[in-house]
Amino acid sequence: CPSPRDGSPDTCGGALPAEARGLGRRRRLVWTPSQREALRACFERNPYRGITTREELAQAIGIPEPRVQIWFQNDRSRRPRQHRRESRPWPGKRRPQKGRQKRTAVTRSQNALLLRAFQQDRFPGIATREELARETGLPESRIQIWFQNRRARHPGQGGRAGAHTGGLCHA
DNA sequence: AGACTAACGTAATCAATGT
DNA sequence: ACATTGATTACGTTAGTCT
């Protein structure tokens, strides 16, 4: 997979750390018309879908469930602003409704492995994430969530792109 | 070149699990 | 009860596709 690499961007000034900016993303999907139709139809009936429905839909259109979830997230954003941040806890309207993904139990050894990877790179690209998924036996989507939560709760850790602790952006 | 949008980011929050 | 942490949300950003 020849990932075309452009010239390295500047060191400072971006909204996100360099490592966070799109290095090694997963390949972008292109929906077929029938897939689009199925997604839109499902969204229309309820824009908030539990894991069961997401997986059924994913199965039906032949797309991994995490991609379906991202599509729903993106499409809700595109929809007219439902409620801006003010009235935070759901205004009683259409709650996400139950049916979350079952909480993943991360074992000690899995956690240790992820922790090591986190210290080396807080923003692993798709290749690294899939390698970690293979090594831990966890789904790649759970790996991604793990890193998001870890970054949010442990800022400043990790060797690369450390928030403000490191020498990044020493002006 | 610009529009559109999947992929991905943060921040806040919901919620399961262990103490 | 509380702390920890996985899962979901709103919303913003980055970058690949298509016109």
Give your account of this protein's structure.
The protein has 171 residues and is mainly α. It has six helices and no strands. It has helices at residues 33-45, 51-61, 65-78, 108-120, 126-136, 140-153. It is elongated, with a radius of gyration of 19 Å. The model is unreliable at 1-16, 83-94 and 162-171 (pLDDT under 50). It binds a DNA duplex (19 and 19 nucleotides) through residues 15-16, 20-22, 25-31, 48, 51, 67, 69-71, 73-78, 81-85, 88-90, 96, 100-106, 123, 126, 142, 144-146, 148-153.
Q: What's the short story on this structure?
A:
The chain is built from 6 helices and no strands.
Structural class: mainly alpha
- Categorize the overall geometry: elongated
**Could you state the order of secondary-structure elements as H and E?**
HHHHHH
The percent of residues in helical segments reads 40-55%
Strand content: under 5%
Q: How would you characterize the largest beta sheet?
A: none
Oligomer: single chain
Which stretches of 5+ consecutive residues score pLDDT under 50? 1-16, 83-94, 162-171
Number of strands: 0
Q: Give the distance, in angstroms, between the N- and C-terminal Cα atoms.
A: 36 Å
Q: Supply the number of helical segments.
A: 6
- Overall radius of gyration: 19 Å
| Average of pLDDT | 80
